[in-house]
Amino acid sequence: MGRVEILHDGVARGVQGRTQRALLSLLVLRLRAWTPASLIVEALWPGEWSERVATRMHVQIHRLRKQLGNGILLSSPNGYRLDLSQHSVDAWRFEHSARTALGDDMPDHDLETLRCLEAAADQWGGEPFPDVDLPGTADWQSELRDLHTRIRERCAEFHLEFGEGDAALKLLTRLTHEHPENEHAQVLRVSALQQTGQETELPGAFDEVHRSLEELGVDPSPDLLHTQRTLVHNREEEIRSDLAVIDPAGDLTPGTEDEADPTMRGSVLRRELAYILMAKGRHSEALSLLERLEALHSGLGHENLCAILLRDMVAVMALTGDLRRALRLLGEASRLDQRTTGTDATLHIIRALVLTHMSRLRRAEDALAAAGEPSGPKARQVMWWRTRSQIDRRTGRHHDAVTGALTAWNMAREDAVEADVGPILLDIACSMRDVGDAECFDWYRTVLRFAHEDMRFPLAASAHASMAKAQLLWGRPKTAIVHSRAGLELARWSGCWLFAGKAAARLAEAEEQMGDTSSALRHRQEAQSFYRRIDFPTPSPVHSGPGDGTGLRAKQAAQDGSQRTHSPDRMRS
């Protein structure tokens, strides 16, 4: 690989001459198998069999045997072969390492798998069999190149999953430069640009991809086009442009609460903008926008819309972890709602969800009971099943929690249902994690991909912190550290102090398991400071179980039989 050469005690000696390189390559291709003299002659001098050519072959064999040293190139009536193990040849070593790292038995979402992939990539020595043209070498060259590409793609996928966008971008930039036709790598590079906050580079990146494919005469794949539409589309800028035209100063006074009323256009757009800002972690901007809208509609006597806006503000506070203030706003919204024909059941469900996150499970049950059975609009039913799942999960009814989360997911996938699927995906992952089902890691990966593609930084922070807990439960503290750090960074950046506290706590637990007590103490204190900032109870640590999940299931079976419902953290995502 890179250069045909022989190493003696670490000292490289180049193999001189095309014929010598071809002969050595042929014997390597047929390692430990006897190669007849006729086959060697046909490979090196096609169609030239004669006594003179046979003599030339013997000369080449003698020269190569001298370079290899005694006892390496063996001869017999059956022909010639090398007495070497496969690990003596760099191409064989790379192929073995690559196939092992890419094997189905390697665990997904695990830091050790990434290290195995990186170790395989490091064994790549360059172009296989350079300047050698033999029957059989072309196929092996193609296989090795394909393995090298797949190894680097997989490494990039792991880096993206672990929130290491810079490492992924560096790897993918080189890969896409070498292979511009590799659309999967191009899609991954776009995701890396987005994850590292380089959205302004996306249009140029897509133009570059399209030019490369056009030069090769290849049409963009549906996946690439979908990614382009998803990542380049910037709804925030569209809304701000529309507002600059229809209501630049926010002075347009709505005539009614009806969203179809043209005078409501500015309010509708500002509320949508608040949700986009919230998803991007810009909570103070979102909250300020909603507060101004609530004040406007309160002055106009639009009580039903005020209740809805207060509910929106609760959603922002739930992300920052300010749950006590969220409850107070819900109370105010409920009082408004009692005087209207609005969303009483929805407010009860939201109250139940907030109380669940505060571990006030009995009150959460009462609030959900007050909402009644799941009925009405499909979006409300989805929210009801989400809440039911979370209450079940935190009270130890794990299988019921999985059923509830999957019910919400199936309903959200129906046509014309306006539901936020990101948190539902996370609910499924957490429920499966707590029931001991390793399929949870596939769901976590889906959540992270969804969150990064839609620039949902709070959701990504929560997913990383939650996945760190799963890695701890499966006995993989090294991988838990990677996810904890990614979650902590995203949570700090987006001001999600509850998620920051959880990520820091998971990081401390993982470091304790790795024996780094000083760093663990620092991160545990950091977690407590985040929890105090939002007046949130400090969770208990996670205890890891065996990698096969049997210890986890045994522990949860014991919890299922318990009547206690106030375990501080065992069911939190």
Features:
mainly alpha, Arc Repressor Mutant, subunit A, disordered C terminus, 4 strands, 573 residues
Question: In brief, what are we looking at here?
Answer:
With 573 residues, the protein is mostly helical. It is built from 26 helices and four strands.
Describe this structure as you would to a colleague.
The protein has 573 residues and is mainly α. Helices cover 67% and strands 3% of the residues. Strands 1-2 form a two-stranded antiparallel sheet. Strands 3-4 form a two-stranded antiparallel ribbon. Helix 7 (165-178) runs antiparallel to helix 8 (183-195), helix 8 runs antiparallel to helix 9 and helix 11 (235-246) runs antiparallel to helix 12 (265-279). The longest helix has 25 residues, at 137-161.
Structural class: mainly alpha
- Detail the poorly predicted runs: 546-573
Shape, per Cα inertia axes: elongated
Widest sheet: strand order?
1-2
- Chain-averaged pLDDT: 80
The SSE string, one letter per element, is: EEHHHEEHHHHHHHHHHHHHHHHHHHHHHH
End-to-end distance: 47 Å
| Strand percentage | under 5%
Largest sheet: 2 strands, antiparallel
The appropriate CATH architecture of the domain at 90-232 is Alpha Horseshoe
Number of extended strands = 4
Give the helix proportion (percent range): 55-70%
Helical segment tally?
26
